[in-house]
Amino acid sequence: KGELRMQSLTFDDAGMYQCIAENMYGIIYANAELKIVASPPTFELNPMKKKILAAKGGRVIIECKPKAAPKPKFSWSKGTELLVNGSRIRIWDDGSLEIINVTKLDEGRYTCFAENNRGKANSTGVLEMTEATRITLAPLNVDVTVGENATMQCIASHDPTLDLTFIWSLNGFVIDFEKEHEHYERNFMV
């Protein structure tokens, strides 16, 4: 195949590699640089979010994405409690923390710890629970004669600390009310 495979790389393997393909009609060359990367975990470029919101009864994924080489091992804590995989909590291979069926008791400070053979680092964020958004009045099926007007309603309850936006779509395509203002009209009820 013309493949070169290398295992258990060290810094001595870094450099410019050249592949030469040759037959009776001639010879061609191709070059590539191999860089060997090794660094302790750092959150400088990608710190954890300082504030993470999760809906009551919902699912939240808290990302932990430090720069590190080789890939670090991850662990998590909530306050001073070390977290382990369980029925509601899971630590993914990429370092993310997943919590399902979020409750008020899940609120607090979460810290991700990353460690490899070069060093260790951690980053912390605060998880806050919000009330889940729910459709309280869903649109109903409507039969209308051609040429008549129709009104469809959608009302939702939501956490008062968050903004709410309604998006309408037709057959999977979002309606652009500015472009289609002659056909569709959006009414806001307070």
Automatic annotation (TrEMBL):
Any one Gene Ontology molecular-function term assigned to this protein's record: cell-cell adhesion mediator activity
Classification via InterPro entries: Ig-like_dom (IPR007110), Ig-like_dom_sf (IPR036179), Ig-like_fold (IPR013783), Ig_I-set (IPR013098), Ig_sub (IPR003599), Ig_sub2 (IPR003598)
GO biological process entries: axon guidance; dendrite self-avoidance; homophilic cell adhesion via plasma membrane adhesion molecules
A Pfam family it matches: I-set
Keywords: Disulfide bond, Glycoprotein, Immunoglobulin domain, Membrane, Repeat
SMART domains: IG (SM00409), IGc2 (SM00408)
Any single Gene Ontology cellular-component annotation: plasma membrane
PANTHER family on file: BASIGIN RELATED, ZWEI IG DOMAIN PROTEIN ZIG-3
Name of this chain's protein: CNTN1 protein
Naturally occurring in which organism (per UniProt): Grallaria varia (variegated antpitta)
